[in-house]
Amino acid sequence: MRVILNGQVLPVNIRVNRDILITLRSLARTLHWKLDYDTTKELVYISTQNIAQLTERLPAILEEPESTRLTGKVICLDPGHGGQDTGAIGFANSLEKENNLAIALLVKDRLERNGASILMTHDEDTDIASTSNSQETAAARVSLANESHADIFVSIHNDSFADSQVSGTTTYHYGNAESARLAACIQNSLVEGLGTKDRGVRFGSFYAIRYTAMPSVHIEVAFISNPEEELLLSSADGRNKAAEYIANGIMRYFKV
Ligand SMILES: [Zn+2]
Q1: pLDDT by residue for the chain (256 residues), tens digit each?
Q2: Where in the chain are the domains?
Q3: What separation in Å is there between the alpha carbon of 233 and the centre of ligand 1?
Q4: Angle between helices 227-234 and 236-253 (to 10 degrees)
Q5: How far is the CA of 49 from the centre of ligand 1 (A)?
Q6: What is the CATH number of domain 74-253?
Q7: How far is the CA of 84 from the centre of ligand 1 (A)?
Q8: 67 CA distance to ligand 1 centroid (A)?
Q9: Do 5 and 48 contact (CB within 8 A), yes or no?
């Protein structure tokens, strides 16, 4: 969460929690500040002076980079499924393709703010191969990643199982050491951050991570078939957190 005080971004990026928001709200009441938050963008605006200034600087603030830690890195993000292929359908009927795309776009924002160049296999609810054949779709995504010489390839998914009690996070790779290291960085960051059950880093033979030429992983963020985890995957707050920890895992991988 970033704090904008009288139109200036404070040099802190704190984790949002209920206590902080309650404290801020009561401070604002006591001191006659104007307080506003945008939970999807994780921004808190505080104005101790002129209320009109409050949100007018927003576009400039969002353009401001957080760091240059990932400058020069090209990252290919692959939101799983899309178009006719909905992926799994949740306990309360949310669609995996929508959760994947929303999380991937948030990961993109975070990585870009730290200097990375992002290539998306698709950035709206479509499929790049315009076909319902999942093998062809995967092949098109792989070619895109390979032709762009991306440094890493990250495919984002939701897990699903017949038993709605089953939960947790898994990250798959296709055997090479760098892919396994990337998978471990992302898996650890997600599990620590989200507090989900650690189902581990595993070998997986998914088409996209099998044929991409760079270190590649397939993330199953959580189970869409589990009511609690579906909420995590489909809510603005949960998606933001998932994106934050995936991005942190990627930064850990690059040791920046
Ligand atoms: Zn999937």
Answers
A1: 788 887 777 777 777 677 777 788 888 888 888 888 777 777 888 887 754 444 444 444 455 678 899 999 999 999 999 988 999 999 899 999 999 999 999 999 999 999 999 999 988 887 655 555 677 788 888 888 888 889 999 999 999 999 999 999 999 999 899 999 999 999 999 999 999 999 999 999 998 899 999 999 999 999 999 999 999 999 999 999 999 999 999 999 998 7
A2: 2-63, 74-253
A3: 13
A4: 80
A5: 49
A6: 3.40.630.40
A7: 13
A8: 31
A9: yes
